[in-house]
Give the backbone structure.
Amino acid sequence: MNFKQVGIILGASALSFGLFSTNVHATTNLNEKPPVQIQAASTENVFNKEDLIKKFRALFPKQFDFLKSADFQMNGGYYYPGEETMRYDLNFTKTIDGKQLYGNVSFVGKDLQIENFYYQPATVTEALFPAKVSKVEAQKIAGEFMKKYLDGGEYQLETDSYGYGNYPTQLLTEPIRYSFSYTRLKNKVSIYDQRIEVSVLGNGEIVGFYRNQDTNKATTFEDVKQVKAIDGILKKVKENLYVEKQYQIETDYQTGERHVRLIYQPIPNLLGVHASSGKYLTLNGYSADFPKKSSISMLASKSVPPKNKGGTTIEQAKKMAEQLLKVDLKGVKLNIESISEMTNYNGQEVISIQYMYSYKNGGSGASLEIDKQTGEVIQYYNVKNEILEQMGEKPSEAKPLTEKQSLEKAIGHIKKWIPSYLHNYAKPMESAYFDEFQGSYMFNFPRVVNGVIVSGDSISVGVAKDGSLNNLSVNYQEIENWPSPDKAISEKQAKEIVTKALSLRLNYMKSNHKPENNHYDLVYSPLFNKRSFSSLDALTGEWKAPFGENTSIVVSHAWAEEELNYLISTKALDIKDPKQFDGDAAISKGEALKVMMKSLTYMYEGYYYPEQENKKQSFDNINPEHPLYQSVERAVEMGVIKPDTKDFAIDEPISKEQLAVWYIRALGLEQAANHSTIYKLSFTDADKVQKELAGYVVIANSLKLLEADKDIFNPKKEVTYAELAVSTIRLAHKISEKSRAFPY
């Protein structure tokens, strides 16, 4: 199989910290198949469990001394296809005070070098916000680990990344993890695809480690003495620089909501400049000419009628599937396992068909989707080659087609199976991915809206070496509002902004990732504002980092500033205007419930689940379209609120005693709190507490969730944003201590 095999050679050297930049347009081939583990013969396994444990303890001295040999389990030696390097896995589990810890570590080769490691401690209280260890302290811990681990090679800390630093978007009951990426250096130059990842828990423990394994024994590197001066290269790039408009679809994976941004993409076809020859590195390799602007060639100039204008029935879909899936192999039987109507992730009404090929030694199956409105197959994967392999049959011996011939076949498949999509998509803008093992090609046909390419929305077509359809995937996303290109700043303005922000970074890169290519070239890759990952908003002319990293809202407060900003950063608290925000203002029941639910449980609001087609509604005023619907229904499900009234008073302020009820219910202590007569209130304002809520108030106070101030509890006081932020974080710690989490 065509696996990318890059890695790290280790030797004794100092660890250096500096600025690392990756190739701005480096791409990962999403069509590669994952390696299949193959168990090796027992005679090849020269290590036993104790050997692995000894190596493990040497890497983490004292940290795991509490584990005994019986707590470890070993997975015998195995290897990946195409490799001769043996691997060994060591897993461990243990229960301490009723809480389970677990972890695993993988070793490679005769020296048992660690390849990856993951650890989940039993207790993570000190890693919850506010974590015991800051990011700066965690970075020092990771650096010391790297110095100790490195048996060779020189590395530097990568600072040009997706922003490992700001608070992660996660539950308050989950530990904070800091991730750091170190890249290997050669001749003091970074190798963009060889790195080590280290994760440090908020309590200071190393809990994650991953490195690329070196499988190319004959790797060579270009001589740094041949490099041309950066100033001359930069001048040439700036003289030829251009920008292109693109649509980017951003998805909130908790709500499912999609937002479209119109951006200017700087020279999208340029990967870098060869530092010695000055040639331009593109997706198609080196070229003496500066890459030109993309030329859009649509698959069809006007709409084409669908295969079925009147919609598709279950019976029609079944016949289509049987036609597409038909095989002429002796001893192989096609079984349609199930057919169901549903709405897929992109909001399309589809007919989903699960099928299985049965044969003597087993079976292989998959699913396909048919657009219910058009009768067209929009998701399909051909498992016939896998069947041949399983049955020991020889695959097709046909001579592989050329890329041009395969492209013609791919367009033919689109015209046959999804004609109504033709006018929305263009011919591929880049070279196809070629699977040398199977002799097949994979093409991506980009979507075009308003004459602008849509990044991330494409039709993928796989063509086998005999021209047959390997796979078909339509990622058509229903979007109502597309920003008008007419409202964008001019290309001249965009070019001036981009030119000003452009710089170059020297790093080692491969010109292609074909298996036979073992050579790294020296390449100047472009950066913008000294970052690899950013884009220019075409409407505002502002630079935007991915995932809104540089758009964090920060508020000020006398004593709850850290807590408020953490909740804002994790999107539990939604603040529109930080200048107008008042942390001492009363918070409504609806807003308080939303903050609490987003802090304690994940809610994938936009995801479709067939079993939830008939959504329940606990309150008359909170229907499935209401913005608080998911928060309210999740709170009902968790028992935090009771559907014992007609409406839920979302706009009313929440009192301190009412919030105590929610907190105690979330902790699972309601049964104890209900025995109100056994509790004695020592507050001077005890008479102001509702008698039936006495138990909730006493427990909340004793657990220091909501405390009395100088023996005054003030039960009717309206809770403020600041008070909610601080007390919700305290609640999360108590829930974590009780191992009472609500992740789903």
